[in-house]
């Protein structure tokens, strides 16, 4: 049975990594092209809208999709009841946003926001039609179908956004791109998922899923609101350009994080749920996956932070260089993210959504105060406050989740310390290699941004992987084992 679970997990990981690799590559390419065609102000405006949309999506789902994924034997009544409640909730939320749009535009002091919110947030209703189908596919670890749905949807949205940007639609290019992608996504998942809701609305089922989901919803609202607090503060107290620079730095930082950790999260939640009552196996799986993610994320973000200036200038042009110092600071936050995600996953797998909520309340309450203090010191005050709060949140999350599987924070840090030290050593090599190219090389071509990135980045990664091989670091050995055993 354990071998069967391993095979199923490996197959699921293969498809979800394929999806993440392809979709992230397309998103990255599209975002680069859009950043060249549009102004930082346009991305700043969308950053304000995205805060509203993100909170609305959380409210609409109510945490019941997660409840469906972790339920042992949900039946048709479970799925259908959650579907209709999601649809009703999504419609109500959109109506509230429609009438609240002028007030939100006034809050951010951007009149154009009123119309944009009313159009952009139609996606909340569209998405409500597909949440249960995605939950069913996730339960079945059917990431192949998810891949076949996500890719064409992403391409349709990308083509729409780029065409609109080319013809001068400005920020509306980003709005139409989002709507088209969401619509294509929903249509396809209805066609491919093989499930249509029966006309069932069982209030007992709804109460069961809501009793688990509402705590996750409140937690997610607090988390999303807290996560977007920097966007809200920048949008309210600084120019839209500054929010554009910040969101671009966030997007660049999230690329390697999302490419690996998000893909693993989609697999690990149902996988962890299947062994939730075996703490030894759960601890072992958690430790190995956490180390695997950090083994790849740490060097990529570290090298990117060191080479941030040529990276931004080469990909995005000179107009985005003010985002470089923001990106360098946020890379620290990106390295910490996988530790957050998996510690919180343990609480959900163990069914402790009540504790999940309590922790979010603690973090949001203290974090808001720190952010307000950081605001007094301008943009950099907010950014360094974000780094401090991520360290603080990691300590709280790991303290509680570690107690459930006997894996405390100090032991977690001890396990990842070799990766961190090796990354720092390789980072020094990257820094030295880049400085030599700039100051000591007299060949102009080698001083160009693309050669700086290629030579310094490749040197750092080769040093990192070769050293890891000779030191026989566990994540690299595990990666080789998974790669060869899945062939």
Q: Give the overall shape.
A: globular
Please give the count of helices.
Answer: 20
Total strand segments: 0
* Structural Rg: 23 Å
Q: What characterizes the major β-sheet?
A: none
The assigned structural class equals mainly alpha
Note the topology.
Elements: H1 2-37, H2 40-61, H3 64-70, H4 76-108, H5 113-120, H6 122-128, H7 131-139, H8 143-166, H9 172-192, H10 203-227, H11 229-237, H12 240-274, H13 279-306, H14 308-316, H15 324-349, H16 353-375, H17 378-404, H18 409-439, H19 449-471, H20 474-485
Helix pairs in contact: 1-8, 1-12, 2-4, 2-5, 2-6, 2-10, 2-12, 3-7, 3-10, 4-5, 4-6, 4-10, 6-9, 8-9, 10-16, 12-13, 12-15, 13-15, 13-18, 13-19, 13-20, 14-19, 15-17, 16-17, 18-19
Q: Care to describe what's here?
A:
The chain is an all-alpha fold. The chain has helices spanning 2-37, 40-61, 64-70, 76-108, 113-120, 122-128, 131-139, 143-166, 172-192, 203-227, 229-237, 240-274, 279-306, 308-316, 324-349, 353-375, 378-404, 409-439, 449-471, 474-485. The protein is globular. The mean pLDDT is 83.
Quickly describe the structure.
Helix content is 85%, strand content 0%. By secondary structure, it is mainly alpha-helical.
């Amino acid at each position: 049975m354990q071998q069967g679970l391993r095979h199923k997990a490996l197959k699921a990981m293969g498809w979800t990594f394929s999806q993440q690799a392809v979709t992230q590559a397309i998103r990255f390419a599209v975002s680069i092209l859009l950043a060249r065609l549009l102004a930082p102000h346009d991305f700043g405006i969308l950053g304000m809208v995205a805060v509203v949309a993100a909170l609305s999506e959380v409210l609409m789902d109510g945490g019941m999709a997660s409840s469906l994924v972790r339920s042992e034997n949900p039946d048709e009544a479970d799925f259908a009841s959650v579907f209709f409640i999601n649809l009703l909730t999504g419609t109500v939320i959109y109506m509230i946003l429609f009438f609240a749009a002028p007030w939100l535009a006034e809050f951010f002091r951007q009149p154009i926001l009123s119309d944009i919110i009313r159009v952009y947030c139609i996606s909340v209703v569209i998405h409500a039609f597909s949440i249960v189908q995605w939950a069913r596919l996730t339960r079945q670890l059917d990431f192949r179908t998810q891949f076949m749905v996500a890719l064409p949807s992403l391409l349709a949205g990308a083509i729409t956004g780029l065409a609109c940007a080319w013809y001068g639609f400005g920020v509306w290019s980003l709005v139409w791109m989002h709507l088209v992608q969401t619509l294509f996504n929903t249509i396809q998942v209805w066609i491919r998922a093989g499930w249509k809701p029966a006309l069932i609305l069982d209030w007992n089922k709804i109460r069961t899923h809501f009793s688990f989901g509402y705590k996750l919803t409140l937690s997610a609202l607090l988390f999303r609101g807290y996560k977007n607090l920097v966007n809200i503060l920048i949008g309210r107290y600084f120019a839209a350009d500054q929010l554009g620079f910040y969101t671009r730095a966030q997007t660049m930082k999230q690329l390697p994080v999302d490419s690996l950790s998000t893909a693993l999260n989609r697999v690990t939640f149902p996988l962890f749920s299947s062994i939730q009552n075996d703490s030894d196996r759960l601890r072992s799986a958690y430790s190995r996956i956490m180390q695997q993610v950090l083994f790849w994320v740490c060097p990529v973000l570290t090298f990117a932070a060191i080479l941030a200036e040529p990276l931004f200038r080469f990909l995005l042009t000179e107009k985005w260089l003010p985002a470089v110092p923001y990106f360098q600071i946020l890379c620290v936050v990106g390295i910490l993210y996988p530790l957050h995600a998996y510690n919180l996953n343990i609480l959900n797998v163990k069914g402790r959504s009540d504790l999940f909520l309590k922790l979010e309340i603690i973090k949001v309450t203290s974090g808001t105060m720190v952010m307000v203090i950081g605001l007094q010191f301008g943009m950099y005050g907010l950014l360094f406050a974000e780094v401090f709060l991520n360290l603080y949140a990691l300590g709280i999350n790991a303290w509680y989740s570690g107690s459930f599987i006997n894996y405390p924070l100090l032991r977690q840090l001890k396990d990842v310390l070799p990766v961190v030290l090796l990354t720092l050593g390789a980072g020094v090599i990257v820094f030295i290699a880049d400085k030599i190219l700039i100051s000591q090389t007299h060949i102009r071509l080698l001083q160009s941004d693309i050669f700086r990135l290629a030579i310094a980045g490749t040197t750092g990664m080769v040093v990192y992987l070769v050293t890891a091989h000779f030191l026989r670091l566990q994540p690299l050995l595990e990666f080789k084992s998974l790669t060869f055993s899945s062939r």
